[in-house]
């Protein structure tokens, strides 16, 4: 098991744990519901680059420390910034969110507690979201004078549509666990926070059994339909079968065994 920890003066840290083909990224600042500082956003983007460099990684899990996701950005920090610096901070958020959105690996966000503001959008940038009944999701920016970028809005609209997106910003209301499932914001619901990680690891293990070429191809194709995503990676082929995984998949089916797929750079 490989673990890297990036600490910050504001008592926050980002950890990366890599083991058994699963990379687990944790945003840790529990005193403030894992609210992210500018430094933490920048580090999150850097972590995404380190994940790709490890060829053993097959699935990425993004979570918050102490049974929460993240309340988004540290609003108190903005009180100390100029307008120019605040805009720069939002650029850093977008880069971090986009870096996870564009990872050429399946990504899963664990949502227990708040996923607010930029934290909400970060969760939506992941491929799957697994939550608990305590999940709370929303983007209450109207009382802060934050003007959302088109990329942020597009990510929300791709899940809940135009009218619900406007509703979330107009009213600042918060979506709770069951409603989040009904709206498609959560793919799965774990029974409670104690079961969230074991529940997610079972799904991650199932994903690991699939062909990396198949997973990358569907992620790439799905990205074409999203106006907020540019595609920096390729499947390696532009045909309907992968020259490496397809023969192994068919052979394993005939031989009635599990396929042995390997991630390739």
Describe this structure in words.
- The protein has 265 residues and is an alpha/beta fold.
- It folds into two domains: 2-208, 2-enoyl-CoA Hydratase, Chain A, domain 1 (Alpha-Beta Complex), CATH 3.90.226.10; 212-254, no CATH class.
- 43% of the residues lie in helices and 17% in strands.
- It contains nine helices and ten strands.
- The chain has a seven-stranded mixed sheet, sandwiched between helices. A three-stranded mixed sheet has the order 6-8-9.
- Strand 1 (2-7) and strand 2 (13-19) form a beta hairpin.
- The longest helix is centred in the middle third of the chain and has 22 residues, at 150-171.
- The mean pLDDT is 88.
CATH architecture of the largest domain: Alpha-Beta Complex
Tally of DSSP β-strands? 10
Give me the secondary-structure category.
alpha/beta
Helical residue percent? 40-55%
Major sheet summary line = 7 strands, mixed
General shape? globular
Strand sequence of the main sheet, in spatial order?
1-2-3-4-5-7-10
- Written as H for each helix and E for each strand, in order along the chain, the element string is EEEHEHHEEHEEHEHEHHH
Radius of gyration: 19 Å
Percent of residues in β-strands: 15-25%
When the domains are counted, the total is 2
| Structure annotation, total helices | 9
CATH class of the largest domain: Alpha Beta
The CATH superfamily of the largest domain turns out to be: 2-enoyl-CoA Hydratase, Chain A, domain 1
Low-confidence segments, ≥5 residues, pLDDT <50?
none
Q: State the CATH topology of the largest domain.
A: 2-enoyl-CoA Hydratase, Chain A, domain 1
């Amino acid at each position: 098991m490989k673990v890297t920890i990036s600490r910050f003066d504001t008592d926050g840290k980002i950890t990366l744990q890599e083991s058994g083909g699963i990379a687990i990224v944790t945003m840790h600042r529990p005193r403030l519901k894992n609210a992210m500082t500018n430094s933490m956003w920048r580090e999150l983007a850097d972590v995404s680059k380190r994940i790709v460099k490890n060829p053993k990684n097959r699935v990425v899990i993004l979570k918050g420390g102490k049974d929460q996701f993240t309340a988004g950005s540290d609003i108190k920090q903005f009180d100390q910034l100029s307008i120019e610096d605040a805009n720069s901070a939002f650029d850093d958020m977008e880069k971090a969110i986009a870096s996870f959105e564009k990872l050429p690996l399946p990504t899963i966000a664990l949502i227990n507690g708040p996923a607010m503001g930029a934290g909400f959008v970060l969760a939506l940038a992941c491929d799957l979201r697994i939550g608990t009944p305590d999940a709370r999701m929303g983007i209450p920016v109207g009382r802060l004078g934050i003007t959302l970028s088109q990329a942020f809005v597009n990510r929300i609209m791709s899940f809940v549509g135009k009218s619900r997106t406007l509703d979330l910003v107009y009213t600042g209301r918060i979506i709770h666990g069951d409603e989040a499932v009904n709206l498609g914001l959560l793919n799965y619901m774990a029974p409670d926070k104690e079961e969230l990680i074991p529940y997610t690891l079972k799904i991650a293990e199932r994903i690991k059994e699939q062909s990396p070429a198949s997973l990358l191809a569907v992620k790439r194709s799905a990205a074409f339909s999203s106006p907020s995503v540019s595609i920096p990676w390729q499947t390696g082929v532009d045909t309907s079968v992968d020259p490496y995984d397809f023969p192994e998949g068919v052979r394993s089916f005939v031989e009635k065994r599990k396929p042995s797929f390997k991630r390739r750079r």
